[in-house]
Design a protein that fits this description.
52% of the residues lie in helices and 3% in strands. Strand 1 and strand 2 form a beta hairpin. The protein has one domain (43-283). It starts with 26 loop residues before the first helix and ends with a helix. The radius of gyration is 20 Å and the shape is globular. The chain contains eleven helices and two strands.
C-alpha cells in the first residue's frame, strides 16, 4: 500500500497568497491578512517584543561598538541562548515529549532520524551543530558589522525623534522584504553552481525546529546577507535586532513540522508553514513565501492540492526520464 503523503495539512486548500496582489482589489481580505499576521497574538509581534527586550537588556551601546571588543562575544552568547531556548523548547514540546500528539504534524515520518547523509550520523546532532557553530556565528558577525557601521557613520541611524512613522513602518516592512530577498537567494542557492551548499539544508526532508537554521556556512552568508539593507535604508539598532531575530527565529518556528499550537481544539498560534514543508518534499517548488507571490509569478507555486502534487510528480518523472 502506498505511503500516506501527508499526516496533516491545513483545512483550507489550495493555499492562497497575500490578497494584496489580487485583482480586482479586495481591501477586506487584505485587512484580515495583515491583522492575522500581527494581531492579537502572532510570531511577528512576539519578535518585536523580544527585540525590544534584547535591545534594552542584552545589547551593547553605540559607544561600545565603535571598536571591536568583547561585546561581539556577548552578542554571540545572547543569540545562541535565544536559539537554544526556542528551538530546543519547541523540539521538546512537539517531538521529544509529543505534548500535542501527532495530529497536526505535516509529515507522517518520525523526526529526528539517523542516517549516513547527516554529518554526525543523526539528524538532531547535525542540525544543532550547523545551527550553532555556523548559523549563530554568522548571524552575530553580520549584527556586529552593522553595529560597528552605525557607530562609525557607515550606516545611517534613524531614531524615534527623526520620525515615528518610519520607525514603526520598518517593523511592518521586514516580512515583505524577507519575501523578496528570500525568494531570490533561494533560487540562486538551487542553481547548479551553489546547490552543493544548499544540499546540507535539504538533508531535512522531514523537518523539526532545529532544521530551520541547519545550513552550510556559505548558505548562512547568503541568508543573513539580508542585513546589508541597513547600509541602504536608515534604521535603528532595534530594527537591526528585530530584522536578524526575524530571519533566525522565524526559520526555527516555520520548520517546527506542526501547523501550530493547539489548545482546547483551537489553533492559538501559527507555527510551521505547509507552503515551505512542500518545498522540503519536492525541492523545486515554493522557493519563496506567501507574503509576495513570486512563485506564482514564475510558475513554481505548489498550492498543496492533489492536482498540484500530481503535476509536480509528473514533472519530476519526466525530468528523471530525460536524464536517463
Amino acid at each position: 500500500m502506498a505511503r500516506k503523503e501527508w499526516n496533516h495539512h491545513p483545512d483550507v486548500l489550495p493555499l492562497g497568497v497575500n490578497p494584496l496582489w489580487s485583482w480586482p482589489p479586495r481591501p477586506r481580505a487584505v485587512f484580515e491578512w495583515y491583522w492575522s499576521a500581527w494581531l492579537p497574538v502572532s510570531q511577528n509581534l512576539a519578535f518585536v517584543a523580544l527585540a525590544c527586550f534584547v535591545y534594552l537588556a542584552a545589547s551593547p551601546t553605540l559607544e561600545q561598538t565603535a571598536t571591536p571588543g568583547a561585546w561581539i562575544a556577548l552578542i554571540w552568547v545572547r543569540n545562541a541562548t535565544l536559539l537554544i531556548v526556542l528551538a530546543h523548547g519547541l523540539h521538546l514540546i512537539f517531538h521529544r515529549h509529543q505534548l500535542q500528539g501527532g495530529d497536526h504534524k505535516y509529515d507522517p515520518r518520525p523526526f529526528p532520524r539517523a542516517g549516513r547523509m547527516f554529518t554526525f550520523g543523526h539528524q538532531m546532532r547535525d542540525n544543532i551543530f550547523w545551527s550553532i557553530a555556523s548559523g549563530v556565528t554568522i548571524w552575530t558577525l553580520y549584527e556586529a558589522l552593522i553595529w560597528w557601521s552605525y557607530a562609525n557613520g557607515y550606516a545611517a541611524l534613524w531614531f524615534w525623534s527623526d520620525g515615528p512613522i518610519w520607525f514603526i513602518a520598518f517593523f511592518l516592512l521586514v516580512p515583505i522584504w524577507e519575501s523578496f530577498y528570500f525568494y531570490w537567494i533561494h533560487r540562486v542557492l538551487h542553481s547548479r553552481q551553489l546547490y552543493r551548499f544548499h544540499a546540507l539544508h535539504h538533508r531535512n526532508t522531514d523537518v523539526g525546529p532545529w532544521s530551520g537554521l541547519s545550513m552550510h556556512p556559505v548558505e548562512h552568508l547568503f541568508y543573513f546577507g539580508t542585513a546589508f539593507i541597513h547600509f541602504v535604508v536608515p534604521s535603528h539598532p532595534i530594527h537591526l535586532i528585530f530584522h536578524l531575530l526575524f530571519y533566525a527565529l522565524y526559520a526555527v518556528t516555520t520548520h517546527t513540522g506542526f501547523e501550530g499550537f493547539w489548545v482546547s481544539g483551537r489553533k492559538r498560534l501559527d507555527l510551521g508553514k505547509f507552503h515551505h514543508q512542500i518545498h522540503h518534499r519536492y525541492f523545486e517548488v515554493n522557493y519563496g513565501t506567501l507574503e509576495v507571490p513570486w512563485d506564482k509569478f514564475f510558475g513554481t507555486f505548489h498550492d498543496g492540492s492533489e492536482s498540484a502534487a500530481q503535476r509536480t510528480r509528473q514533472r519530476l518523472r519526466d525530468r528523471a526520464s530525460m536524464r536517463r
